[in-house]
Amino acid sequence: MMSEERMAEEAIIARRIRRVRRARHIRRVRGCLLAIVLMAALAIYAGGRAVHGPAEAAPPVREGGAAQLSQAPAVREPEPTQPEKTFSNQELERLVSDVLDGIVTADMTRMEQARAVFDYVHDNIYYTGSSDKSDWEAGAYAGLTTGKGDCFTYYAVSRALLTVLEIDNLPVERVGGEARHYWNLVDCGDGWYHFDACPRSSRLPYFLSFMFTDQQAADYTAEAGRCYYDFDGTLLPERAQEIITP
Questions:
Q1: What is the pLDDT of residues 71-122, one digit of tens each?
Q2: What is the per-residue pLDDT across 149-188, written as a single tens digit (0 to 9) for each?
Q3: Global pTM?
Q4: Which sign, positive or negative, has the C-alpha torsion 56, 61, 65, 69?
Q5: Which residues of 64-100 are buried (b: 16+ CB within 10 A; e: fewer)?
Q6: Rounded CA gap, 14 and 114, in Å?
Q7: In 3-state terms, what secondary structure has residue 210?
């Protein structure tokens, strides 16, 4: 039989073996739990990147910490927008009708109607040297409601009145010179003529700029300078050559 001492030693050895096995088991469990936690964290991180996309890389930095401008992402310019219209077409038509009712009669010829429009615009718009040139209808509305503006306003108001009278008209714009200038091209049935109701400075030569020809425009420009009536004729229909306004 095994002595008591031997039995005691065996019991001690058995307890030690159980403690070692228990410690190994605990380490394995902890390792598994840690692995599970790490895998879960990686899954959450990967899911976040899939939803939000990869983080943008920081722009390269030169010595001293200044970002290289050539590598910076381009800034997209905002799309241009048209100015908001502050009036209705009906309001503009009413203003035009009110003017025409006071200056045009049913027995007038088309040329006489055009001259009535020329005289009204020339005499009733005060020249200020500035206007909103974004839209001719807006220019006409401003001219008819405020009674002031620049050459674009005279052109726009003339266009509105002539159009309602069903007199054909087109815009003309100066080519060259230090300042812009606008006027109309009008056809009352006898061909296309220049029509400029905008008054000129008293320092410039006198000229009745109603229904004038290309030659008259060139002669006045040669006298007044400033490329006054220089224009691109290729953009316009053929003009009449017979002088009807001396």
A1: 444 445 455 445 568 899 999 999 999 999 999 999 999 999 999 999 999 9
A2: 999 999 999 999 999 999 999 999 999 999 999 999 999 9
A3: 0.67
A4: negative
A5: eeeeeeeeeeeeeeeeeeeeeeeeeeeebeebbeebb
A6: 124
A7: strand
